[in-house]
Write a structure and sequence with these properties.
The protein is of the alpha+beta class. The protein has 30 helices and 26 strands. Among the domains are: about 60 residues, Helix hairpin bin (Helix Hairpins), CATH 1.10.287.610; about 230 residues, DNA ligase/mRNA capping enzyme (D-amino Acid Aminotransferase, Chain A, domain 1), CATH 3.30.470; about 130 residues, Nucleic acid-binding proteins (OB fold (Dihydrolipoamide Acetyltransferase, E2P), Beta Barrel), CATH 2.40.50.140; about 80 residues, 3-Layer(aba) Sandwich (Rossmann fold), CATH 3.40.50. Strands 2-13-10-3-9 form a 5-stranded mixed sheet. It has a 5-stranded antiparallel sheet with strand order 16-15-14-17-18. It has a 4-stranded antiparallel sheet with strand order 5-4-7-8. Bound molecules: 2-(butylsulfanyl)adenosine.
Length: about 800
């Protein structure tokens, strides 16, 4: 069929042509990528794409939604398939200064047994801040493209890579090995990054923090049509599997890539020695801002490939290459203000507002301040152990040195004290919450004579409007209830209008329709959508429900662990109620938290104290050290004794605390809850604290009137134990006690913590004590674990 020239097509003809081209191109793509059996030559295929593009340019209004120019046709998979790298994708060792670079060359030279470094010419090229990619060609045809992944196995992103113009589908020229994996960096230019963020803004979508994240997000889109709209670039600089050698030097290899149709970096240079490498490093450092894309250093590679092969690799790094990183970028600006934000748990977090300044191409106006001690200059640097900024305190109006390294929030690393006004005053960290209630904010932790908590917390808890709002924000967040159309802004509105004070209120918003309708941003349709989204969540995953409660230390992972361990809200809540009064008492917890006093020493001391007499009266001679020594408890070694002496100057005091702790040791149900794999005592205590508060319990109960946490497995109503009350005691062998309890509850039984006349069955494992005795006294049926398993199966 002869084709009409694009210029002479009528509109009707164009519609038909575009439809035909869309079909043909997509059939060919399927034949090429999915069936491995192309029906057209590449030139013919390219001609189809070109004709399609030309018609679209002439008739922009006719561009189809399934246009081959914005999509690659193949159906979006829900997940990327994994592909194993035939040759691992290595990472690079880092050099941070000139000395490290000289060491690198020295090591290579010694390894090869060379007298000097003159024979070790190296290439120097920009280290692009993107993500590495391996593209496989067989007989010159692109087969697949794989991300680095863990270096051994990456994700198949072929469909997306086909939209990258810098990566040829068919290699140009000749001389390429039959199998060739070309590796390089996928990145977004500054211009493309800005355009993308502009488009995100217009669409009301979140912005990307930097070009690297944006490139990664774009390459890993499930819909290639989206990737196609983002002009990703690619520089080829390395290779993986090759069926035959194709070059003898690094320079030569990269020159081959260029001949075969890849973009290669014009700033790659061959250098004879260390001085040459460092000169190129300096030069690139100066030109960094003008390159048009992000680089974070310069990569040096031994040029001779035979030497590369001899040098080989050490674990994850080649011995023949190194990345010379640029120091983090810094700028000087002025500290305009210190804002205090209140977190969900009441933590007062200071944030620096600085006069906007460009640091390495990014405008910075906020910096982290960590905490009160950081501002005062008394916090210790994590690396050096010395006070931050040489101990200088930070004042509003100060000239400060700000540093940005990678993605992290900018840091204040120094103060120019000379420029400080004589009238400036140290920053007074607020001692009250910035909310309207101005509740006292305190730093805990000094009751053991130890250090103060670094964090100052508002004591208002549920009364504090800021904490409530943060709680609500967590509740509706993506990992919790994930309510569409209900974000921080809407919550703030509903909170301000007095409609939502706690999670349960969200599910009663429908009652306030009349009040809401017509308010700015709340039209008919958006309210309908909002109420529908809320209703959808009345049935909710148990894990999301638990996470949404916002219990301290109970994050997404722990919530998942708990949901799996208990299967249902009823079982979970029953375990908490059982554990609640089996917790250690205050005295025990105080001793347990003491530095220097290990669990074994504590046990020994408590065993002793349980039967000890209270000392009559303490006197000066009743020395704690002496008395401890007299006990001759070999397990209570010097560090433990020192710790005790420090906290308890008085012997009578120590004995009474020990006695009280001995009586208040944690018991079975608490221990088994805390022992759930993936939870630990901190989260366990936080959970129990949360449910010990009546206002928390009430709020949860009100929420349970509105939503139903979905059971992992629904309870059975006709098992042999339905309706019976079971007590587990002693240790179990085939399952944990919590699994056993969860199973019993799933089977419709009730689980109790102590034996009474109402108990139907006691399941006793080895080590069972008083509960077993009580059972025989009351004539309650007792089973072994094996008998129980047989009984319920
Ligand atoms: S060579 C075996 N050259 O840096 C050597 N890597 O920190 C393989 N990178 O994973 C890497 N620009 O993603 C090489 N010009 C360049 C590079 C470069 C950026 C990345 C690459 C690698 C990472 C290691």
């Amino acid at each position: 069929m002869t084709k009409l020239p694009v210029d002479s097509l009528t509109k009707e003809q164009a519609v038909h042509e575009l439809e035909r081209l869309a079909r043909e191109i997509s059939e060919n793509r399927r034949a090429y990528f999915e069936e491995d059996a192309p029906t057209l030559s590449d030139a013919e295929y390219d001609a189809l794409e070109r004709r399609n593009r030309l018609i679209e340019q002439r008739f922009p209004a006719l561009v189809r939604t399934d246009s081959p120019s914005t999509s690659v046709g193949s159906a979006a998979s829900t997940k990327f398939t994994k592909i194993t790298h035939q040759v691992s994708m290595l990472s690079l060792d880092n050099a941070f200064n000139d000395g490290d670079v000289a060491d690198f060359l020295g090591r290579a030279q010694r390894f090869l047994g060379f007298e000097d470094q003159s024979a070790l010419a190296c290439t120097a090229e920009p280290k692009i801040d993107g993500l590495s990619l391996s593209v496989r060609y067989e007989k010159g045809q692109l087969k697949h493209a794989v991300t680095r992944g863990d270096g051994k196995e990456g994700e198949d992103v072929t469909a997306n890579v086909l939209t990258i113009g810098d990566i040829p589908r068919q290699l140009d020229g000749e001389g390429w090995p039959e199998i060739l994996e070309v590796r390089g960096e996928v990145y977004l230019s500054h211009a493309a990054f800005e355009a993308l963020n502009q488009a995100q803004t217009e669409a009301g979508l979140p912005l990307y923090a930097n070009p690297r994240n944006a490139a990664a997000g774009s390459l890993r889109q499930l819909d290639p049509a989206i990737t196609a709209q983002r002009p990703l670039s690619f520089y080829a600089y390395a290779w993986g599997e090759v069926s035959s050698p194709f070059a003898t030097t690094q320079m030569g290899a990269v020159a081959s890539f260029a001949r075969w149709g890849f973009k290669t970096n014009a700033d790659m240079k061959l250098c004879a020695d260390t001085a040459g490498l460092l000169a190129h490093y300096q030069d690139l450092g100066l030109r960094r801002a003008e390159l048009g894309y992000d680089i974070d250093g310069v990569v040096y590679k031994v040029n001779d490939l035979a030497l590369q092969a001899r040098l080989g690799i050490v674990t994850r790094f080649p011995r023949w290459a190194i990345a010379h990183k640029f120091p983090p970028e810094r700028a000087i600006t002025i500290l305009d203000a210190i804002d205090i934000q209140v977190g969900r748990t009441g933590a007062l977090t200071p944030v620096a507002r600085v006069r906007p300044v460009t640091v390495g191409g990014v405008v910075v106006s906020n910096a982290t301040l960590h905490n009160e001690d950081f501002i005062a200059g008394i916090a210790l640097d994590r690396v050096t152990g010395q006070p931050v900024r040489g101990g200088k305190d930070l004042r509003i109006g100060d000239h400060i040195v700000i540093q940005r390294a990678g993605d992290v929030i900018p840091q204040i690393v120094d103060i120019l004290v000379d420029k400080r006004e004589a009238s400036s005053e140290p920053f007074a960290f607020p001692k009250v919450c910035p909310c309207p209630l101005q509740t006292p904010a305190i730093r805990g932790g000094d009751d053991l004579g130890g250090d103060l908590d670094v964090v100052r917390r508002c004591t208002g808890e549920f009364a504090c409007p800021f904490q409530r709002l943060r709680h609500l924000e967590l509740f509706v967040s993506r990992k919790a209830f994930d309510i569409d159309g209900l974000g921080p802004r809407q919550l703030q509105d509903f909170f301000d209008w007095g409609l939502v004070k706690e999670p349960a209120d969200i599910f009663k918003l429908g009652d306030h329709r009349a009040l809401l309708e017509g308010r700015d941003g709340y039209g008919q349709t958006s309210l309908n959508n909002l109420f529908a989204a809320i209703d959808q969540r009345r049935d909710i995953d148990l894990a999301r429900f638990i996470f949404g409660l916002g219990v301290r230390h109970v994050g997404e992972t722990t919530s998942g662990v708990l949901a799996r361990a208990f299967g249902s809200w009823t079982a979970f809540k029953a375990a908490i109620d059982l554990a609640q009064d089996q917790r250690a008492n205050e005295a025990y917890r105080q001793l347990e938290a003491m530095q220097g006093l290990g669990p074994r020493a504590l046990e020994v001391l408590l065993d002793w104290a349980a039967n000890a007499e209270m000392p009559q009266q303490s006197s000066l001679f009743d020395d704690v050290a002496e008395n401890l020594a007299k006990l001759r408890l070999s397990e209570v070694a010097m560090p433990a004794r020192k710790a005790l002496i420090q906290v308890f100057p008085d012997w009578a005091d120590l004995v009474s605390t020990l006695k009280s702790a001995a009586a208040g040791r944690p018991r079975e149900d608490y221990i088994s809850l805390a022992a759930i794999d993936g939870m630990g005592p901190v989260a366990c205590d936080a959970l129990l604290d949360f449910f010990a508060e009546p206002h928390n319990r009430d709020a949860v109960n009100r929420l349970l009137e509105q939503v139903r946490p979905r059971d992992a497995e629904a309870p059975v109503s006709d098992s042999p134990v339905t309706g019976l009350t079971i007590v587990f005691t002693g240790s179990l062998e085939t399952m944990t006690r919590d699994e056993a309890k969860a199973q019993a509850i799933r089977l419709g039984a009730k689980v109790a913590g102590s034996v009474s006349a109402k108990t139907d069955i006691v399941v006793a494992g080895p080590g069972a004590g008083s509960k077993l005795a009580k059972a025989s006294e009351l004539g309650v049926r007792v089973m072994t674990e094996a008998e129980w398993a047989a009984f319920v199966s």
